[in-house]
Amino acid sequence: MFAHDYLLWSVAAISIFCAGCATSKGPAFNYAPQAEDQAAKTFTVPEGKSVIYVFADPDNRLQTVIQVDQRDVCRLAVRTYYRAVLEPGQHQLGIRCEGKWGDGTPFRIAKERIINVEPTHAYFFTAVVNESVGPGGFLLTGVQSQVTVDLSKRPGWMGRSIIRDRRNRLTGELIGP
User: pTM for the full model?
Assistant: First the structure.
């Protein structure tokens, strides 16, 4: 009898737990529709245009905003990337991250770089955020704490293979028009 009651209670507890999981909110990050993601992974470049891809470094834990020509265009999360079709020529590509130090003080760090893009070419960049983290996973205040950002250009073969990875998805966290 005890085993039967224990089994019923266990099944009830598991059912309640699973129901709570099913009703919880989905991921806090929005992804582009699957059709757009698949189209971006073909790496086609429209005639007379240039394309850039910016993908998040897998170790980024802080919110990362990508800028093109001094305009915020998207947010990147782990295993996401951004694709933009640009006119050939010179453009400003930027990255910004925001967070809080261990004492709750907010910080905002950014970096820009000028890129020259040619018609019918695709370019690949990694958005890198490096942070020194203290004990317990908290950013510390003081000299030993540091957050740096960078946009590293990657060879085409490397960028294509990273973006083709089935776990990487086109960001749906677009900012502005």
Answer: 0.75
**Residue 25 to residues 13, 21, 32, 84, 88: CA-CA distances in angstroms?**
21, 9, 18, 30, 42
Quick one: which of 108, 85, 102 has its CA closest to 138? 102
- Residue 80: name the closest of 41, 120, 130, 49 by CA: 41
CA 6 to the chain's CA centroid = 45
Classified as helix, coil or strand, 24 is coil
Tell me what pLDDT residue 145 has: 53
CB distance 123 to 53 below 8 Å: yes
Report residue 177's pLDDT band, with 50, 70 and 90 as the boundaries. Answer: low
In the chain, DSSP finds a helix count (H) and a strand count (E) of 3, 9
